[in-house]
Write a structure and sequence with these properties.
Blueprint: H1 6-12, H2 33-43, H3 47-56, H4 68-92, H5 97-109, H6 117-126, E1 132-135, E2 150-153, H7 156-165, E3 171-175, H8 181-191, E4 195-201, E5 210-215, E6 222-230, H9 234-245, E7 250-258, H10 264-269, E8 275-279, E9 293-296, H11 299-310
Helix pairs in contact: 7-8
């Protein structure tokens, strides 16, 4: 277990006294001896807790909290702060944030057993989860790490229904890469359209892809690129440019999870994409969504899945081929 810093330690033990306004460290450089004496007196109630913290090293298992939700939140934040920001930067010798972002993207695209799905599965089971309902896992094999049932719902029906509702005509579904070809064929069957595949490579092992060719006839058609997640939008933008060069009359995209890193909105706004459909699975984003992005709600889909689970009905029946 990761250790807690002192603030987290007193917070989880519910021993945080009301100290009133505390000056910034930079203000102490210009403080008088009288002000420093007053500050020391105000901080005195923290001394017993600080001595205890030093004695046990801030290990979270020694803390006792009445608020389980608060405890879990602090521990989750502690893992992110210490493991991702401290330990990984040391392991990989990272000195710039941009390099850290590239590393995260690489880990998303290539399994390196650095972030173990098994550990995440065990953590969910340890806190009492007896079933997991999710949507469009990047790798369906992740379900095998769980000892409890996992229902991986499909986002293609919600996205496909929205595309139909908007009246797109003469469609051809385009897989964003060869790895998503099987899902693209399912999407094409659902929309009753032909399918094409974008063949690409990533020479630098990052999200920047190099399109080699487009397999399939897209000339004069409305191309609908499908994928399971989008971060910077670089892959979609490159696909859209190549589809236009191959004669596609319009280019749209339907992606399950819209993560959208900083700067993605500007890049997408300047691209050949006319519309980008995403489900509303990501709550907080760094930038407001632009006009071409259309969020598709899936709360009803999850609600129906929960209803079927409670009544012991089939989940797969929700997604006919």
């Amino acid at each position: 277990m990761p250790t807690l810093n002192f603030f987290e330690f007193i917070q989880i033990r519910n021993e945080s006294p009301d100290l009133g306004p505390v000056p910034k460290p930079s203000d102490l450089l210009h403080a008088s001896s009288h002000d420093l004496a007053n500050l020391a007196e105000r901080l005195r109630p923290l001394m017993p807790a600080f001595q205890r913290y030093l004695l046990i090293g801030g290990l979270p298992e020694t803390a006792r909290a009445q608020d389980l939700t608060l405890s879990q939140r602090i521990l989750r934040e502690d893992v992110v702060e210490r493991v991702l920001k401290r330990d990984m930067t040391a392991v990989f010798g990272i000195r710039r944030v941009a390099e850290l972002e590239k590393l995260f993207i690489y880990l998303c695209l290539h399994s390196g057993d650095i972030f173990s799905p098994k550990t995440c599965a065990d953590a969910l089971e340890a806190v009492g989860c007896d079933r997991v309902v999710t949507m469009d896992l990047h790798s369906p094999q992740i379900q095998g790490f769980f000892r409890i049932p996992v229902d991986n719902l499909l986002g293609l029906h919600a996205l496909g229904d929205k595309v139909k509702q908007d009246g797109a005509e003469n469609l051809v579904v385009v897989a964003a890469d060869t790895g998503f070809a099987d899902e693209a064929r399912k999407f094409a069957r659902y929309l009753d359209t032909p399918v094409a595949i974008s063949v690409k490579q990533r020479p630098n092992h990052d999200e920047k892809a190099e399109v080699i060719d487009i397999i399939g006839d897209v000339r004069g058609k409305t191309a609908l690129i499908v994928d399971d997640f989008v971060i910077s939008g670089g892959t979609l933008i490159e696909d859209a440019r190549n589809l236009k060069s191959k004669g596609a009359s319009r280019v749209m995209a339907a992606v399950t999870h819209g993560v959208f890193s900083p700067g993605a909105m500007k890049s997408l706004a300047d691209s050949d994409l006319e519309a980008l459909y995403v489900i509303d699975s990501v709550e907080n984003r760094p930038e407001p969504l632009i006009d071409i992005i259309r969020e598709v709600p899936v709360a009803a889909c999850f609600g129906e899945a929960i209803r079927r689970i409670s009544r012991r009905e089939s989940i797969s029946a929700m997604f006919p081929e």
